[in-house]
Give the backbone structure.
Amino acid sequence: MRVEPLTIKLFADGADIDRMRVLAQQDWVAGFTTNPTLMNKAGVHDYRAFAREVLSFVTDRPISFEVFADDFAAMESQAHTIAGWADNVYVKIPITNTQGASAAPLIEKLSRDGVRLNITAIFTLDQVRSVEGSLDANTPAIVSVFAGRIADAGYDPVPVMRESATILAGKPQAELLWASPREVLNVVQAQESGCHIITATPDILAKLKSLGRDLDQFSLETVKMFYDDAQAAGFTI
């Protein structure tokens, strides 16, 4: 397998402040994303304080913070507040609310107002089309399609991502993001599918050093690992 040099942007995904500080020192990290679930798991309780601290060291790259209201009027208010925190902030808007109502009208309004959006939790091509039709052509946006969760449901995400890239081609300010990756192969697939960005979870970041490795050498190292661990355990039969 030949692996082409990476041109896709890697966005670090998480809410661990200490880890984010370290990653902010890496020039190959092109941006950051987080969400309420990751923040809750990291023990974040004060949203504004968390964002303020992150924005003290993430100043030169995009970072996405998500609204957490469920009615669209409150989402709009939160979006404008979050967008005002810094010029490099993208506001995450879910593609629907919890009742399944489309956020397209809100996306259109916010995008027209110049709010940089990251539309999240997208799973279908119809949702991508609704976003494309709602985005202002002059306002930057990120369109996050959850390719990893599509794969979890037993569907091949690659054709979905390729078609998504085609749908968004008419909006040059919109970037397609491969969300929820499961393995390093997804980085290659995302790039080959025409995605501009992929979120890189800590486990993916740790495995990136294996990208493009010689497989014979990788095989030998794996055999040695098994042997060394058996010796360390003192196994006998």
